[in-house]
Amino acid sequence: MIRGMQPLPLPLEGITVVAVEQAVSAPFATRQLADLGARVIKVERIDGGDFARGYDTAAAGLASHFVWCNRGKESIALDLKDPRGLDVVRRLVADADVFVQNLAQGAAARLGLDAATLCAAHPRLVAVDISGYGSSGPYADKRAYDMLVQCEAGLVSVTGTPEQPVKAGIPAADIAAAMYAFSGVLAALVRRGTTGRGGPVQVSMLEALAEWMGHPLHHAMHGGTPPTRSGLAHAVIAPYDAYPTADGGRVLLSVQNDREWRRLAEQVLGKPELGTDPAYATNAARVAHREGTDALVGTALAALTADAAVARLEEAGIACARLRDVRELAEHPQLAARDRWREVESPVGPLRALLPPIDLPGGDDARMGAVPALGEHTEALLRAVGMTDDEIAALRRDGVTA
Q: Mind telling me the catalytic residues?
């Protein structure tokens, strides 16, 4: 920040988002918008709300998925099958800049909440439809949960060991769709700034994850053979794997060229002659003799602790990393040194959370608002759209809101 200048506001200050959302893809997209300053109004079912609230109780009694994806939002609980509940959403949308939904295919259209319908009624609105497989084609009505899409997109086929394909340990299809929805909203808002018109944004989980499959997809399409599953190893580079250390840790290293191999042989393996040995001197030779290559590296690292192995490898200029579990990530020294942790308020008290990875130096910090209780903001939002005490009481009495 230039000395003497006031910090810049968050870029989405003044933007209002209404989201009829559930699970991960839409909630994670709108959480990014909330972190950047947008007001996000989350419309939830009256009977339990977003079903991700019930996935687990790991976050001090709250669901870990929900805590991750829903901070900084206002929650209103409505029955959208009742015309009065639907009318509340339409009133909220009338004053909004962005609308996001990821209901089951066809459900939003039946309610008149699909992007095409809303944008026709509100030309400045940016309206996002997130689906599993897109709005047309033979898979349009197919149920689309993250693991299913990982399978359809081929991610599972390149993840795992030669013997066993496995799904990614995070909801990769949901996250991919969320991030394209997030960037699509930003692009549409920029376009609105020059044209005055918003417009629909459509994102499918399959197409988002298929884009992320770019390297193996192009390898298979243009090279003729799909990449093989190789666990933590690399299919065409050696050594490139995780190796056990004396203290029970594992250290992953990657040798990208033959110069690095010579340094590894001399400074880590203690066998400089391997740098010119025809069986190991080139990457092609090391891949052809992968078992022997891994045995040489494994023997050397097995005599060292993980910390000592990392120190030795870094001194030799070899790329390396500790194989950490999730608890170790939570205590990662780099995240601590860069002050990336904050506390977020919730119905069960403060919860630790990471700052979002987009830094905007010279501006306000990301707005990491509270995780809302179901329907926490219902009454305030009903009043904001002009409802009287009697109307609100009638909605509560009839089970239209909670």
A: 174
